[in-house]
């Protein structure tokens, strides 16, 4: 039986990251569960889901705004499990700010997490992948496909992720590391359920009526796609962006 692979996942205390760690447990992939110290969600719940599925994981606090913190996070995989095969840059923030209120500080704070934080995660992961590997960054239809009023800084960061991944894939392909992007549509996560900075529960429910699949997505439906892209089943897929949206972006509104 092959030795289990090892993944690092930022933003794994809830939402897509939590679902991915649980999914990896069913595939015999060990995980380092990345959690931000000020995140109100409990990473131990993610750990319990992994353990209930028969998997193995550890929780590690990481701040993607800090290179040293991200490097220590990636090194934890090697120290704990002896290797690193998969890096998933999932951590992100969402803040509502109209253009006239979008200060340089707000702009920089968003990009530091949602774009530069992705770079730090990929860079730290690639440096520790001894025998090749796979990386996925999580973008968004806001920026990855659409614009979103009140969220220019968020959309710019998420659009930037696509260019980053394409370039990383071109650079790292010769050493056997693949890099791809997942672009989630409307997914029911703590972030999208935030009525101040996102759609909130009622907004999500209304938006789901416009989606061909008839509803918004669940974190597990994005996690399974990330798991595919980081598996050997996708061994000839790199530099690509895959939209997971129930058909939202292919339907003209009436």
Give the helix/strand layout.
Blueprint lengths: L4 E5 L5 H12 L2 E7 L7 H10 L4 E5 L5 H15 L4 E4 L14 H11 L1 H11 L6 E6 L2 H4 L7 H21 L4 E8 L15 H9 L10 H11 L11 E4 L10
Parallel strand pairs: 1-2, 1-4, 2-3, 4-5, 5-6, 6-7
Task: Provide a descriptive summary of the structure in words.
There is one protein chain. By secondary structure, this protein is an alpha/beta fold. Helix content is 41%, strand content 15%. It is built from nine helices and seven strands. The chain has helices at 15-26, 43-52, 67-81, 104-114, 116-126, 141-144, 152-172, 200-208, 219-229; strands at residues 5-9, 29-35, 57-61, 86-89, 133-138, 177-184, 241-244. The protein has a seven-stranded parallel beta sheet with strand order 3-2-1-4-5-6-7, sandwiched between helices. β1 (5-9), α1 (15-26) and β2 form a beta-alpha-beta unit. The protein is globular, with a radius of gyration of 17 Å. The termini are far apart. The model has no long low-confidence stretch (mean pLDDT 95).
List keywords for this structure.
single chain, 254 residues, alpha/beta, seven-stranded parallel β-sheet, 7 strands, globular
Which of globular, elongated, flat, extended, rod-shaped describes the shape?
Answer: globular
* Percent range of helical residues: 40-55%
N-to-C span: 53 Å
Strand order of the largest sheet: 3-2-1-4-5-6-7
Number of strands: 7
Number of helices: 9
Order of helices and strands: EHEHEHEHHEHHEHHE
Query: What's the story with the biggest beta sheet?
Result: 7 strands, parallel
Mean pLDDT across residues: 95
Low-pLDDT segments: none
Question: What structural category arises from helix and sheet content?
Answer: alpha/beta
What percent strand? 15-25%
The Rg value, from CA coordinates, equals: 17 Å
């Amino acid at each position: 039986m092959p030795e289990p692979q090892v993944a690092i996942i930022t933003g794994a205390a809830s939402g897509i990251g939590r679902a991915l760690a649980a999914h990896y447990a069913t595939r015999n992939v060990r995980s380092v569960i990345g959690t931000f110290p000020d995140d109100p969600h409990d990473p131990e719940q993610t750990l319990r889901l992994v353990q209930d599925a028969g998997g193995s994981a550890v929780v590690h606090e990481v701040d993607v705004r800090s290179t040293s913190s991200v490097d220590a996070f990636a090194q934890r995989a090697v120290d704990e499990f002896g290797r690193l095969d998969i890096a998933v840059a999932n951590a992100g923030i969402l803040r509502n700010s109209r253009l006239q209120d979008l200060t340089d500080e707000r702009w920089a704070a968003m990009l530091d997490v949602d774009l530069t934080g992705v770079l730090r995660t990929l860079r730290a992961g690639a440096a520790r992948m001894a025998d090749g590997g796979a990386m996925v960054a999580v973008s968004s239809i806001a920026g990855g496909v659409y614009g979103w009023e009140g969220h220019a800084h968020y959309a710019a960061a998420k659009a930037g992720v696509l260019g980053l991944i394409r370039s990383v894939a071109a650079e790292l392909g010769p050493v056997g590391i693949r890099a791809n992007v997942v672009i989630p549509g409307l997914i029911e996560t703590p972030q999208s359920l935030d009525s101040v900075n996102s759609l909130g529960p009622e907004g999500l429910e209304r938006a789901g009526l416009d989606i061909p699949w008839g509803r918004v997505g669940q974190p597990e439906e994005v996690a399974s796609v990330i798991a595919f892209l980081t598996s050997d089943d996708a061994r000839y897929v790199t530099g690509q962006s895959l939209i997971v949206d129930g058909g939202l972006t292919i339907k003209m509104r009436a």
